[in-house]
Design goal:
With 212 residues, the protein is mainly alpha-helical. The protein is 66% helix and 0% strand.
């Protein structure tokens, strides 16, 4: 049943529903589920212990890592698109934000989740496809030049609010700043290693902190 966005504009229960829906969707630990289903064990005992796609790749199974990447991005996009269809843009932003938080702090894993990059990119694509493409292109370009997955994530997250600002999407700007801040916090160890020249480059066989 389609709900008129105007009729729920200031209805607290619907805001709560969007946040809860987004959080529960975002908190699905696809990396953990897929590695266990593939017989690869508990991903939290591999490499950095992160449940994201980059750490899943350290199992040596590229297909499971790809499935994790797509699913982690997809849950952010789904939270936005479903909420937008039923309740409009404001609810979509709230649900996408909740999905992002759910991925990083999933209740099922004692709030120890991923770093939010794939989910951030997925929900950004859903919020604004051109800006999402710009963020993905920023990640790819930075990764291609410097060969650091973490640096690519940090640059993409930092520039996303600028992209939204250039496009006059004022509703999304504060949330995109929140995404960037949380991604930087989750990458504090990566930042320390980057500054110390100890961060492993993409393709390096080193079991240290990853993305996701």
């Amino acid at each position: 049943m389609f709900i008129d966005p105007i009729s729920i504009e200031y209805s607290a229960p619907y805001y709560a529903a969007a946040i809860i829906f987004g959080y529960l969707l975002g908190s699905i630990p696809f990396g953990l589920l897929f590695t266990k289903m593939a017989g690869l064990g508990d991903i939290r005992n591999v490499g950095s212990g992160n449940i994201g796609a980059t750490n899943v790749l350290r199992t040596g199974n590229r297909w499971v890592a790809l499935a994790t990447l797509i699913s982690d991005g997809g849950k952010g996009a789904a939270a936005v698109l479903i909420s937008r269809y039923f309740a409009g843009d404001t609810m979509a932003v709230l649900a996408g934000t909740a999905a992002f938080v759910g991925h990083i702090f999933p209740v099922w894993l004692r709030f120890q989740g991923g770093k939010g990059v794939a989910t951030f990119l997925g929900l950004t694509l859903a919020l604004s496809f051109p800006i999402g493409l710009a963020a993905c292109a920023t990640w790819l370009l930075t990764a291609a030049i410097f060969r650091f997955s973490s640096l690519a994530a940090l640059v993409a997250a930092a520039l996303a609010p600028v992209y939204f600002w250039l496009d006059d999407q004022w509703l999304v700007i504060p949330f995109s700043v929140f995404f960037a801040v949380l991604i930087f916090i989750r990458h504090k160890d990566n930042i320390r290693r980057l500054l110390a020249g100890e961060e492993p480059r993409i393709g390096a066989a080193k079991k240290q902190a990853g993305e996701g």
